[in-house]
Amino acid sequence: MKQFVQKKVWLITGSQDLYGAKVLEEVARNSQQIVADFNQSSVISVEVLYQPTVKSPREIHAVCQAANQDDDCIGVIMWMHTFSPAKMWIAGLKELTKPFMHLHTQFNAALPWADIDMNYMNTHQSAHGDREFGYIGTRMRKERKVVVGHWQTEPVQAQIDDWCRAAAGWHESQHLKVARFGDNMRQVAVTEGDKVAAQIQFGYEVNAHSLGELVDVIADVSEQDVAHQLELYHQDYHVSSALSHDEYKLKMLKNEARLELAMERFLVAGEYQAFTNCFENLSGLTGLPGLATQRLMSKGYGYGGEGDWKTSAMVRIMKVMAAGREGGTSFMEDYTYNFGVTDQVLGAHMLEVCPSIAAEKPVLDVHLHTIGMRCDVARLLFTGESGPAINVSPIDMGNRFRIIVNEVDAVTPPTDTPHLPVASALWQPRPNLSVAAAAWIYAGGAHHTAYSQALTTENISDYADMAGVELTVIDADTNIRQFKNELRQNAAYYALSQGL
User: I need a labelling partner for 117 at 20 to 30 A (CA). Which of 35, 342, 419, 477 fits?
Assistant: First the structure.
């Protein structure tokens, strides 16, 4: 079953009229077979649509225009089965606005050594045609993904799926709306940014709403609706026994139920897929939403604390990209360190960590929240699942945006933390904390991140290419001297690419 049921990727095969009807019929059959196999593949998560072979500048231009106009088309895969003179592609590629992948493959894997003749050579010459097509993409400075290998192999299909997921994220980015309940945390730099520039670069829009608007929706939540939410909580989590007999704690839980229902109704009515709030701006609310925010994230909404709209949008985009994959995606913060034989980071936040990353069924309880507004708030408590993950930080550099990725390995804590009243995850950054933290700071990375065990650096790299923004990666091979040089080179490149 395809995860992105309403999204499509088109396969566009290039050729020319030079080879005659029989060759073109074989080209079409081969392309149709590739599409059929892709759609049967359990690796590729998006349906692929066959497009008739294009053989002229007019046909190429028309199919590129059609892709642009089809909102269900999130990207196109282009493959030159035969030789397709690249000047034919100029007009189409100039107008193409959808992301595109250049699939460098051929229909048959092995050569038929005993039977090969010039007819076979002319029909199966992707090695020739794709180089011609590759030149014009480079000549036109077109950003694209190049995947090389036989189309039936799992590694090639996995690369195709990585790119398809990034294309789904880019499509979401073009339609995404982020609601800001209140403003950013005062005096904090990294959560600020140019919202107009972000909309131009990434497509998503960010709109502010007063808390009074949300309070009005909260007032309309009925007791019956609240009671139904409490039933869901008992189904989904280990509910602390204190919530069953302590009237005060039960009241605090009901507060969260009202907040969750009201916030979701507000977001749905405004067609928002992500949101922010801030503990310094809670007028009219019972407290900073804890359980409410955690559950909304688990439903797929993006979130950023303290008004961090960039991270909120990134969490939503990454959740879309990760659909159907094992592992969760959450708003996260590098909170405190564990220095020892292997230095580690304990990630958490005041309340808002998504239960999609939990190693075990979360515990629901009420604890005191002391920052911004001193009050008791219901929240989910858990430790993150162990395994590889990425931390992603989109930042505003003033003259451009930068996305930073640090590859990490989440681990199981050595002991319980009975006095820590928030969800958390423990990880070891690659290559180690010393290098990773220094590189992160040199790059200007935020203390907030989008944390995911469902996605890889490749997914984010493909997305950054589609967005046309700088990507810096901190991984097992990172060397500080080389990393600093890379940042300097990137600064020069992006300054020159933007022109005067």
Answer: 35
